[in-house]
Design brief:
Strand content: 25-35%
Number of domains: 1
Low-confidence stretches: 202-218
Helix content: 10-25%
Shape: globular
Structural class: alpha+beta
Radius of gyration: 19 Å
Largest sheet: 6 strands, mixed
């Protein structure tokens, strides 16, 4: 069984007014106060959220700079010092992503990756699609009613998640072939091995024939979810066959004025064995009163739109 927990929170510069707790004080880099406000806010929020999740689920009550190492291309992971200090005997993997006013964390006992992107029109969108996307993806973009903006970011976060999982950096972003899969039997087999908790529903257009199996007991309708096969090229064979990337449309309201913002979010779930579980939570950051991070048992405004599967 694979279990990946995903935590989502709003980013705000107001977080910089919150006193730095002793539990993460050692994590602030020497240049923290020289960074621009947005970079300080995202760094601080990410460390607060990670510390809260480790405390809640793993009993780790403080973090030190020596608990972390960084890969050649910037992927953070826990050091041997972390495991010796905490007494945790199994590996814990985590990944952070932020865009505009949203920050997300994925954490699991198996390697994980997550990417989120603020969905908005970009001048370079069509040029990027021509350069990196396959014919099926470009056809979907052309057919979508919003000019392909939503589907562009769905496909882009899949690629970013693949790159972040490998830890190799953007140099590997072209090393895949993507193809739309409409095999009903295969789709049903994949659907039957997915359980998603913490969201009310997760289906979006376009309409597809309703699969014979869906996770109705979980309140999930897979009938309108697209399905992609991903074939890595020879230099990208580190991805376990059968692993999945689940992509969601996510909406959040800004705290100050309630303005809705739309994001695309993709999460890597390893092949493992048996059923793959994905668990969502919204997190509320502390305010100037210094209260703790609040982790809610579910996340609002999240819909599944795409499932991508590693086929070799």
């Amino acid at each position: 069984m694979s279990l990946v927990r995903v935590f989502r929170c709003l980013l705000s510069a107001d977080i910089l007014s919150v006193p730095i707790p002793d539990s993460i004080e050692d994590l602030l880099p020497d240049d923290f106060y020289a960074r621009c406000e947005s970079r300080r806010a995202s760094f601080y929020t990410g460390r607060l959220l990670l510390a809260a999740v480790l405390s809640e689920y793993y009993g780790v009550n403080s973090l030190r700079a020596t608990d972390f190492l960084i890969s050649e291309h910037g992927k953070p992971f826990f050091s041997e010092s972390f495991y010796l200090r905490t007494g945790i005997t199994h590996r814990i993997y985590f990944n952070l992503s932020h865009s505009a006013n949203c920050l997300c964390l994925s954490i699991s006992d198996e390697d994980t990756a997550i990417d989120t992107e603020f969905v908005r029109q970009r001048k370079s969108m069509n040029d990027l699609a021509l350069k990196y996307y396959g014919e099926d993806e470009k056809n979907i973009m052309a057919a979508d009613g919003d000019g392909g903006v939503t589907s562009f970011f769905s496909f882009w976060t899949v690629r970013e998640t693949l790159v972040k999982y490998s830890g190799r950096g953007l140099s590997g972003i072209t090393g895949f072939k993507f193809a739309l899969n409409s095999d009903r039997v295969l789709r049903n087999d994949v659907f039957s091995h997915i359980r998603i908790h913490g969201i009310a529903e997760c289906s979006v257009s376009p309409a597809d024939p309703r699969p014979e199996k869906d996770n109705t007991e979980e309140g999930i309708d897979f009938s309108q979810v697209r399905f992609l096969d991903i074939e890595p090229t020879c230099e990208n064979r580190m991805y376990p066959h059968g692993s999945l990337i689940l992509t969601f449309n996510s909406e959040q309201e800004l705290e100050k004025d309630g303005t809705p913002e739309k994001y695309s979010m993709s999460v890597f779930i390893g092949a493992g064995s048996g059923v793959g579980y994905l668990e969502f939570h919204d997190a509320v950051m502390p305010d100037i009163t210094g209260r703790n991070v609040i982790i809610r048992p579910e996340a609002a405004g999240i819909r599944l739109c795409l499932i991508s599967r590693i086929v070799s």
